[in-house]
Design goal:
Elements (H helix, E strand, L loop, with lengths): L5 E2 L10 H8 L12 H13 L4 E5 L2 H12 L5 E5 L3 H4 L4 H6 L2 E5 L8 H7 L10 E7 L12 H13 L3 E6 L2 H8 L3 H4 L5 E5 L10 E5 L1 H13 L8 H13 L4 H15 L5 E2 L9 E6 L6 H10 L2 E2 L1 E2 L4 E5 L6 H17 L1
This protein binds pyridoxal-5'-phosphate (PLP).
Length: 347
């Protein structure tokens, strides 16, 4: 058993390996902002194909992909329909309001997913008093929804309803590749009816940063204007783009291993006293559970686990999240179960 921290807080906690760092060190680079970085250009071209879109732009973060997409699709005062627990609602520092000037118009879904019927019911007829509904944004997989994968037919149906009503469609694909690996459905297929889509390299893929936003040529041209406007254009960023290319070449299939470990963790947690988990709902690398014993809450249990080398992520008073990723191995999962079993039994 190693004494290293078992960091299940997030899949953003991975550190670049020696091989990834070597790829970064050897990257051919240029002035990205001037379109002269060959590594960034190669990544953008590959990403556009992977996501089934005409064009793609490499940006520093997934948050910037969301903010720019909202700003390109919408005018200030317009409304973005999304699920109530969406990342754009609670985790982007109010960016949709501050940058795009939009209002968020959430639908309460189930595990972060809403249905085409719910969207139909949520659409407003012409009403001068209400903000114009302009965009429908979905998250695949869902983060607060527990890493749930959208059924492809539901994604298609939601997009059809949106387009028929004259709304644009956007997909937050922070963990889209987890969905792809879990279901064997291509990222391009998931995104086929979405006007814009992005993937993150700093989550399960294990790169130190960067995300790719894809869409039509006209959409990406406008996105590049926003990239310049908010300072998202970099210079020799081929150094980090090389890590992203390395991740696509080497780490993508390993997401399946993360999923298997999340499942093992969930199955083990289901046997412990004092917590509840619906292990069957764990489809990818996010494991949420609820603390039902009065002896612990999320904060106290996380502190006690950390003292024994296991870091968890409290997500509210009684809700906890554990995330598997490249830097978590089988022994880390078993040790986590052992630590939690001990703590919950001691209460
Ligand atoms: C992490 C995350 C983001 C933001 O991505 P960053 O690269 O961390 O800025 C957006 N949406 C979802 C669903 C996420 O999980």
């Amino acid at each position: 058993m190693s004494s290293a921290l078992i960091d299940l807080f997030s899949d953003t906690k991975t550190r670049p390996t020696a091989a990834m760092r070597a790829a970064m060190a050897n990257a051919e680079v240029g002035d990205e902002r001037a379109g002269e970085d060959p590594t960034v250009r190669a990544l953008e071209e590959r990403g556009a194909v992977m996501l089934g879109k005409e064009s793609a732009v490499y940006l520093p973060s997934g948050t910037m992909c969301n903010e720019i997409a909202l700003a390109v699709h919408c005018r200030p005062g317009e409304a973005v329909i999304c699920e109530s627990g969406a990342h754009i609602v609670g985790f982007e520092a109010g960016g949709p309001g501050a940058l795009a000037g939009v209002v968020l118009d959430p639908i309460p879904g189930s595990r972060g997913i809403f249905t085409a019927a719910q969207l139909t019911a949520h659409l407003r007829a012409d009403n001068l008093q209400a903000p114009w509904q302009r965009l429908v944004s979905v998250e695949n997989t869902t983060n607060l929804g527990g890493g749930a994968v959208w059924p492809l037919e539901e994604l298609d149906a939601v997009a059809r309803v949106a387009h028929e009503a004259g709304l644009a469609t956007h997909m937050d694909g922070a963990r889209l590749l987890n969905a792809t690996v879990a279901r064997g459905i291509g990222a391009d297929e998931y995104a086929r009816r979405y006007d814009s889509v992005w993937i993150d390299f700093s989550k399960g893929l294990g790169a130190p940063g960067g995300a790719l936003l894809a869409g039509s040529r006209a959409f990406i041209r406008e996105a590049r204007r926003w990239q310049l406007r908010i300072g998202g254009a970099m210079r020799q960023s081929g150094i980090i783009a090389a890590a992203c290319i390395y991740a696509l070449d080497n780490n993508l299939p390993l997401l399946a291993v993360d999923h298997a470990r999340a499942r093992r963790l969930a199955d083990g947690l289901a046997h412990l006293q004092g917590i509840t988990i619906d292990a069957a709902t764990v489809e990818t690398n996010l494991v949420y559970f609820d603390i039902v014993t009065a002896a612990w809450n999320a904060k106290t249990l996380a502190e006690a686990a950390l003292a024994q080398g296991v870091r968890l992520c409290p997500m509210g008073h009684r809700r906890m999240r554990a995330v598997t990723h490249l830097d978590i191995d089988d022994a880390g999962i078993e040790r986590t179960l052992e630590v939690l079993k001990g703590l919950l039994a001691s209460a």
